[in-house]
Write the structure tokens for this entry.
Amino acid sequence: MQFREWMRENLGRAATHFGLDLLGEPRLGWMDRSIGALAGRGEQRFWLRVVSEDVRWASGDFWTGNLDSTVLSSLAKPRVLDVYEWEEHRQQRAEVLTLLPGRPCSQSDVLREPVDLSEAWWVELRRTVDVLASTPTDRVNADQEMVGSRIRQRFSDSTDHVVPAWETAHGDLHWANLMGPDFGLLDWEGWGRGPAGTDAATLLSYSLLVPEMVERVWSVFGDVLESKAGRLAQIYVASRLLQRIDKGDHPDLVPALRAHIETLL
């Protein structure tokens, strides 16, 4: 609770720096590493986010991901308008971002009930993933060493772990990062090169508790998921998710995820 209160103080310090008023209840991110809230200046509205990290790790691709994603101008995503950093026990990075219309498709990364989304929404989702996949970048979401290590840790040598194809991925394509009813995609912190099919595999894994949404994801990304690269991406994503589950995330996903893994192995 003390750390959470400190994060709220950091958010307030960032708002003061940017001359913003905090207008909404702050929301903490994964493992309380970040905090964000609706903020305003006059009639203007923004999203204000502060991430806190040990100084040793406050650099590199994940530290600058949201700002770096500005180059993806054809996609429906927030834009970073301003950045402020300071060091106080840890390194703090505050970002002012544009708002997207609508609301997140889920309050949790894992979907637990169907979402009514238009055909146009699904078309834009596939376009976004395809455009991103073909975008050249030096940023790295996951490399062969990371992929192989995580798969071997979970499944020993029971499956091949050599990535057959690479592409640029969002890297965290779950339902709390997807907006509706108009399509939008949040949280570009970790985007970069990774195993081909990572985004489709991630969305499928976070949909496993809702069979009709699993079918919909397959209808949109079946060609990706059925490929050799897509199958390996699903195994890799499952190994990542199991690691998070070990830390207390989404325990109700375990039976469905393990059943899904069995079909892949």
DSSP finds eight helices and eleven strands in the chain. The helical segments are 2-18, 61-68, 119-133, 144-155, 198-205, 211-225, 228-246, 254-264.
